[in-house]
Amino acid sequence: MEIDRELLKGSISLLLLNLLSRGEMYGYEILEAAAVRSANAFEFKEGTLYPALHQFEKKGLVSSEWRTGDNGRERKYYSLTAKGRKAAQKYERQWQHLTGAVNAVLGSK
Amino acid sequence: MPSIERLIDEIMAASRIPSEKRRREVLRELRAHVEDFVSAGRQSGRGEEEIERLLLERFGDPRQIAQQFAWVYRRERAALHLGGFLISTVVVSLVILAGTISMRAGIMMGFGAPVVFGSRHTVAMALDILASAAAYLGLLSLGRFFGRPLAALAVVAAAFVAVFVAAGLPPQYILFGFANGALLRGIQVAVRHPALRLGGALACFGVLGAVFFRPSSSALVTTAASWLIMGSAYHLMTHVAARVDRALLRSM
Asked: How far apart, in whole angstroms, are the C-alpha atoms of residue B202 and residue B236?
């Protein structure tokens, strides 16, 4: 299902940080993981992903490192910093709270 | 895939990411991404053309991605602009200082000498030259900073006038400074040949000086000497300013 950009905007940070909290990944891996885990409901676009990762790095939420991966190619791996992990948890709590509230409104008579 | 390479080039060109090192890294990262995408596409049995089409579709409008990168690195860019402006101002001020010192050494301005020849003459001269240098650089750097050359011009002109008024110089100096600045800038933009540029700068000083200050015939030697020195110094200043500015802000 195509999701409205405005609706998606606020959840991108949460999704990215959550995916990275499971382990370090490089850009392409993140896109794949997002598609697989959401059963293709989410499709990060390259144009959203990379600027967002760089912004996170500037904010100190993630750190990056060029390394040779299992496939023998050099990739830029991103991992959460302590600050990033805290932010991921905070976003997740806020999200649960928000969706609970939204669902309550939607389900009310 | 030439169309993908072109797309990435377009993104990089429009992203205005400061620092060559950072740009190279983003480029490397995007290329790695394309590599992964292509090899994954091949593995799932897609043809080259289809992979290319999919990739172009996913990347979308290169200007949009570039804009996002530009936003992420906006502070670094502003800092670089400001740094470039300050550094080039200092460099040019040093060039001007050399000119001022040589004038203090005795070959004072022949134009209008009786009017301003007094105790504050040297200070006033130095202020005049520094203000001109700042104004010139301001035009170059502020123009890019705000993307509005006319607004930048108004700001610099106001500062220019304020300095002149504070130094107590007669109004024809302001006109002289402005006319010269405008003509020198014009010469620098329009004339490519270095000798013609220098000649143009000297002619511009000579003609404007004669019109504005009407030197007396008794001061012809000092007038000619100061004309040569001032003209060359201003020419050097605009030359250095343009070089410094270009070198510092090449990546903008």
From this structure: 11
What are the CA-CA distances from residue B119 to residues A47, B122, B204, B213 (Å)?
64, 7, 28, 20
Interface ipTM: 0.85
State how far residue B79 is from chain A, nearest Cα, in angstroms.
Answer: 15
- Calculate ∠ Cα A40-A42-A43, nearest 5°: 90
Contacts of B26 in chain A (CB under 8 A): 50, 54
Residue type, B52: E
What are the chain A neighbours of B60 within 8 Å (beta carbons)? Answer: 45, 47
pLDDT digits over B154-198, tens only? 666 676 677 666 666 666 666 766 666 667 767 766 777 878 878
Facing residue for A46 by CB, picked from B40, B59, B72: B59
Question: Reduced to 3 states, what is the DSSP secondary structure of residue A78?
Answer: strand
- Compute the distance between CA of residue A64 and CA of residue A83 in angstroms, rounded to an integer: 14
Cβ–Cβ below 8 Å for A54 and B64: no
Same domain, B9 and B112: no
Using a CB-CB distance cutoff of 8 angstroms, which residues of chain B are in contact with residue A72? none
Q: Which domain holds residue B123?
A: 75-248
Mean pLDDT for back-to-back runs of 10 residues, chain A (109 residues) = 70 89 92 84 82 93 90 90 94 92 88
Q: Count up the domains in chain B and report the number.
A: 2
Alpha carbon of A55: minimum distance to chain B alpha carbons (Å): 6
Last residue of a domain, one of B56, B72, B88: B72
B227 lies in the same domain as B105 = yes
Q: What percent of chain B has pLDDT over 70?
A: 47
DSSP string spanning B3-29?
HHHHHHHHHHHHH--SSHHHHHHHHHH
* A76/B58 CB distance under 8 A: no
pTM for the full predicted model:
0.62
A43 phi and psi angles, rounded to 5 deg = -130, 105
Domain-terminating residue out of B33, B50, B72: B72
Interchain contact, B72 vs A51, CB within 8 Å: yes
Question: Domains in chain A and their CATH numbers?
Answer: 5-107 (1.10.10.10)
